[in-house]
Write a structure and sequence with these properties.
One of its GO terms (molecular function) is G protein-coupled receptor activity. The chain has 740 residues and is α/β, with parallel strands linked by helices. It contains 21 helices and 25 strands.
């Protein structure tokens, strides 16, 4: 601190022309002494401050560097905060001090325990340790530190076995290690907090070799070693603190009255010959925190003076006098770099948290060295804060990471089941139940298998289910599509034959207009079956069912019309009958259109209210997903089929009644056979459709369409084509009208 202040006083850029004074108090690590000193400089308007070169001057306290411990810092902050006196601590790490409502004027250059706890939790999780014991002191530092530690463990999903004992501070750790060194005990892997893990005084305990932990970043302060070694005897004599240090280091006394058998210090003692932590500047950690604290206050004063100059230019002198409040305000905004180290504070008064991961490694000579093996930088993005860049030597000189678990990790396919009456890191591994998996080790609970995938035999992998539908690449799809095209081609060829011979008696005798309309509807029936093949989509689902329903009704309506024509024709032969006048071509067309319009109306209502839509059937098979069309409204679907069945049954009854009429070529017989096939196909279709799984439901539907369509064209038109093409002698009016 003295070095930093003298460096600032000799700086021509920072606070030029202004000298900082200081007064150093020894609180003796006592809270009561800290409180006493805080009240002392609050109640004294004019304190005497050292300004260097054995000079002193009176003034008011503008800022405080300290305290070292968390508990004294808490007490001091509560006293001086109401007076807006900024307090910058170089080593108080309690997370509680980040609370600006309770400690509004507190700042620190050392990271909060919250960051250290997060770093330790990530370190422990990195090495998969779950059986951990924690040692703490019964103080604000210890209690808040362990609370932050446990909170970080829960945040990073690390299981913590809570074994607490009294100690964490350096003072208590020395006592603990001293006791442990007296009697042999099983090897333990120690994880140190920053409060003791970089303390060279503890390296004498051999059982601590292999210790790892996070310490304050090691630093270099140019000129500091020379400043320490240039300490003169005259400087020592006027400073109680330096007097105590000098007497202890050289085992002498400066004042002859206090000699008590000791030799008197005469000034010839050479500080450069000392081999103590005082002269060792290779491990400057907390010293750099003090250095940064002093510079932070200096920068705040510098900025406050600049604001004061501007303010006093406009306002009277009493209103612009500098105060600790101005320094407190500017301290929140400081942001500078010194010797390569950045200094700034967040809204909680905390600096950016940077720790070194240190490892206590034994050399060949048996000396324990504190070696930096990694870094933790809380300012880096999530997942990149923690780095290990050197090999770690563990307890007993091992290079293998120690295992610290109550129970081993449960393998994939199993989950943890806690052992009754034991800590939460003690468990058994149980296989996942059916329908659940665990794809990583150490799972607390198994995951339900997604409906779109199934698990393998090891219960550790969710395998995506293949999607199945009747495609044009399937053998069944190719066969059915081929028959659909063949049927359509056959119908077109039949139409061409009928057109070519449209004036022949056999074509004219069977109502050529209805015959051509029937052939067109049959072509559409064959082609509509193709819409059932391929991946279902919203349009294909709606098209396939409605097109099928309308074209089939059109087809059956034509057959029904032809059947009625046959009956009416024979009724017209009776003497005095004029029945054909009431069922001529216009009435026939109206009949077909009326029957078809009813089906169009049914389909329209179905599409408007609840149309078919594509779905992924996840329940039909465990190992695959069926892509199919949902009916939307089952009532609509069965209404369409029911209407087709009703017309077919009516047509079948009329055809049966007309089958024995005495023409040589009675079309009613052909219609009877076609309707018999049609009804047989669709009666067997219903149970087959309901019971067929997956894509075979579509196969059954296409098969029924094709079978009934082929039945109609083969029964009604094949005999006529045979006569037209191969028996032209029978294609005469005389033969057609003659009786059997």
């Amino acid at each position: 601190m003295v070095f930093a202040i003298e460096e600032i006083n000799n700086n021509t850029e920072l606070l030029p022309g202004i000298r900082l004074g200081y007064q150093i108090y020894d609180s003796c690590a006592s809270v009561s002494m800290t409180v006493h000193l805080a009240f002392q400089f609050l109640n004294s308007l004019d304190l005497v401050f050292h300004t260097g070169k054995n000079c002193s001057q009176s003034g008011m306290v503008m800022a405080v560097v300290g305290e070292s411990g968390s508990t004294p810092s808490i007490s001091m902050s509560r006293i001086i905060s109401p007076f807006n006196i900024p307090q910058v601590s170089p080593s108080a790490t309690c997370t509680c001090l980040s609370n600006k409502q309770q400690y509004p004027s507190f700042f620190r250059t050392i990271p909060s325990d919250q960051f250290q706890a997060a770093a330790l939790a990530k370190l422990i999780k990195h090495f998969d340790w779950t059986w951990i014991g924690a040692v703490r002191s019964d103080s604000d530092y210890g209690n808040n530190g362990i609370a932050s530690f446990l909170e970080a463990f829960h945040l990073f999903n690390v299981i913590f076995h809570d074994v607490m004992r009294q100690s964490k501070k350096l003072f208590y750790m020395k006592i603990l290690f001293e006791e442990l060194s007296r009697e042999p005990f099983p090897p333990r892997q120690w994880i140190g907090s920053e409060s003791w893990v970089t303390n060279p005084g503890l390296r004498k305990y051999s059982f601590l070799a292999g210790t790892i932990g996070f310490g304050i970043q090691k630093s270099v302060i140019p000129g500091f070693r020379n400043f320490l070694l240039n300490l003169s005897f005259a400087q020592v004599a006027v400073s109680p603190l330096l007097t105590e240090f000098w007497e202890d280091s050289f085992n002498c006394t400066i004042k002859e009255s206090n000699s008590a058998g000791k030799k008197v210090c005469n000034g010839t003692e050479d500080i450069k010959t000392l081999q103590t932590p005082y002269t060792d500047t290779s491990q400057l950690r907390i010293s750099n925190m003090v250095y940064k604290a002093v510079y932070a206050i200096a920068h705040a004063i510098h900025n406050a003076l600049f604001v004061q100059i501007l303010f006093c230019f406009f306002f009277p002198l009493p209103l612009c006098l500098n105060s600790s409040l101005q320094i407190l305000t500017e301290l929140k905004k400081v942001n500078f770099s010194r010797n390569g180290y950045d200094v700034s504070f967040d809204t909680n008064g905390d600096p950016v948290a940077i720790y070194e991961l240190v490892n206590w490694q034994k050399t060949m000579a048996g000396i324990t060295d504190i070696v930096t093996v990694g870094l933790y930088d809380a300012s880096l993005p999530e997942g990149q804060e923690f780095q290990i860049n050197k090999n770690i030597i563990w307890m007993e000189g091992s290079t293998k990471v120690p295992v610290s678990v109550c129970s081993g990790s449960c393998p994939p396919g199993t989950r943890k089941v806690l052992q009754k009456g034991k800590p939460i890191c003690c468990y058994d591994c149980t296989a996942c139940p059916e329908g659940e998996i665990s794809n990583t080790t150490g799972k607390v609970k198994c995951l339900s298998v997604h409906v779109k995938c199934f698990y393998d035999a090891n219960l550790d992998t969710c395998i995506p289910k293949p999607i199945e539908f009747l495609s044009f690449q399937d053998i069944l799809g190719i066969i059915l599509a081929t028959f659909s095209v063949l049927g359509a081609c056959l119908t077109i060829i039949t139409t061409a034959i009928f057109l070519r011979h449209r004036t022949s008696p056999i074509v004219r005798a069977n109502n050529s207009e209805l015959s051509f309309l029937l052939l067109i509807s049959l072509t559409l029936c064959f082609l509509c079956s193709i819409t059932f093949i391929g991946a279902p989509s919203e349009w294909s689902c709606m098209l396939r069912h409605t097109a099928f329903g309308i074209t089939f009704v059109l087809c059956i309506s034509c057959v029904l019309g032809k059947t009625i024509v046959v009956l009416m024709a024979f009724k017209a032969r009776l003497p005095g009958s004029n029945v054909m006048k009431w069922f001529g071509p216009p009435q026939q067309r109206m009949t077909v259109m009326s029957f078809t319009f009813i089906q169009v109306l049914i389909c329209t209502i179905w599409l408007v209210l609840s149309p078919p839509f594509p779905i992924k059937n996840l329940t039909a098979y465990k190992e695959k997903i069926i892509l199919e069309c949902a009916l939307g409204s089952a009532v609509g679907f069965w209404a369409v089929l029911g209407y087709i069945g009703l017309l077919a049954a009516f047509c079948f009854v009329l055809a049966v009644l007309a089958r024995k009429l005495p023409d040589n070529f009675n079309e009613a017989k052909l219609i009877t056979f076609s309707m018999l096939i049609f009804c047989a196909v669709w009666i067997t279709f219903i149970p087959a459709y309901v019971s067929s799984p997956g894509k075979f439901t579509v196969v059954v539907e296409i098969f029924a369409i094709l079978a009934s369509s082929f039945g109609l064209i083969m029964c009604i038109f094949a005999p006529k084509c045979f006569i037209i093409l191969f028996k032209p002698e029978k294609n005469t009016k005389k033969h057609v009208l003659s009786k059997n």
